[in-house]
Amino acid sequence: MTWDERFYDVIGFGDEVPGVLALIAAAREYRRRTLKYPRVLLMSKGSKYEGVGGHLVRGGLAYLDRCQVSKELQKSHGLDTFGTPSTLYKEFLQRAGVVSIALDPRKAAAALQRMMQEAGVALIRDVKIESILKEGQRIVGIHLTRGETYSGQQFIDSTVNAELAQAAGVDKLMGFATFGLPESELPVTLVFETEGLSVTRLKQIEQAYLKRFTNLADTQAQDFLRHATAGDSQLAERLRQDMVDANGNLKTMWVGKDYIDIRSPALSVAYHSFRGKKLSLAESGVMLDKGNVAILPDGRLSWNALLFAVNGTQAEELARGSAKPTQSMLDEMAFVQTWMKSIGASSIQPASELYIRHAGNVTGVVEPLTGSMMLAGGVPAWEALGTFAYHFDVRGGIPGIGIKAHAQGFKSVSFSAPVFNVGIRHAQIKEVPNLAVVSPASGFGGFASAAGRIVEFNATVGQGLGIAAMIALLSGRNLSEVSSLEVRQVLTQTGQLPRVFGVAQTVEATRLRDFETVIV
Length: 520
Prior knowledge:
This protein starts with a strand and ends with a helix. By secondary structure, the chain is of the alpha+beta class. Strands 8, 9, 10, 11, 12, 13, 14 and 15 form an 8-stranded antiparallel beta sheet that branches. Strand 10 (254-255) and strand 11 (259-261) form a beta hairpin. Helix content is 37%, strand content 18%. It has helices at residues 17-34, 54-57, 71-77, 87-95, 105-119, 163-167, 199-213, 219-228, 233-241, 266-275, 281-284, 312-320, 327-342, 371-375, 401-407, 448-452, 455-475, 484-493, 506-518; strands at residues 5-13, 40-43, 121-124, 129-135, 138-144, 149-157, 172-173, 188-189, 192-195, 254-255, 259-261, 286-296, 300-308, 347-350, 355-356, 361-362, 369-370, 387-389, 419-421, 435-437, 444-445. It contains 19 helices and 21 strands. The longest helix has 21 residues, at 455-475.
């Protein structure tokens, strides 16, 4: 062995939370079976000066999207508010001190670091792929631009654009090419944290804006509204209507234990009036949306609100560029900082990386997963690794899909929220059999990535893939040859199997299947 060669049982590329948890699961399972520590390596594209954890850490996404379980399901199955997440994800949240929704990026990074160290997962950072070494269809090594070569037996890619898979020759569809829209993509977000702006003060500010913007006699406020809509009277009226609920009450923000849901566009109107840019993502390319705000320690608020429109090509470029915001995004952030200070914030700090929601999907997986399959209840209960419930979340919209749908006679592009059982086959790559992709870029078709991109879902898949990687390693097989059922058996034996409660919504699944079949 020369000085620049390294050999590992499992290598993970990308440090998104599901990928990190996959490696921890792999290491723990190997130790459980052999009483020895395996050779497991995490390759992170992140800086050595920042924490591990991808967009939840360096991207600052503190407001977690949690499993959405109806009251009826909670009652009938004896479930908690967020169902039953995978045991490893639940442990991560507990170690990071999550009460309900808010994940402090600093605590998240520390928790992941501790869990990796305990499991014996090695870490290298600032990596960039130069080339992939293959024997037949299998990956046998990753050669980095800095000259090192790392060899491995099983590989797990958790990057948002399936970067390792692409380098290994796996085909990836750009954007929403599954709908015939390769250049249509979900917007990216530059998350930011504020200090000095209390929840009480924020509520007061929003209340004042709501009262003024909905008062047609307040001519100054209506001028602000016209300025925010670039004189578009129809948009102004829609925004006013969105400030009042069905009962005529002002749509004030909801404040939970550790989060805020901003329900009205009042703050958005105020910012865009100040900014002089129309409150339209499609027309302006940027929008301060209704914020999902996480309440963090020390008076910090984390805002998932600032959206930037990108196309399929741009999303891929941003992902390859380590999710760094562009100069124009940073310029917009400077305006946000000025405005936030004007309403009371003493400090406004943007995240170092973007939150990239989606950047295409790989093909050639063992079994693609579509939105209609999710609505049908997901994988069969007897092989399920858990259940996830979430709406098809296309925040900012998929440009062009409405036009295509209407041209084919579909009156709506909205579908019910699926409650579906989780497996691993959509993440296992057939053509590169010792590789899996656990991220928004997994083998999703149609609307599936809109729910399948959520971290909590992918954490369940990641834990399953980690166990599958060790089953493959110890039985002399490839990762793609291990079934969900084999993983489920391990989870059952070790007392780690979450509750399984997938719901088959047959009529709605058929409607979406027809949609996903026609809109291509």
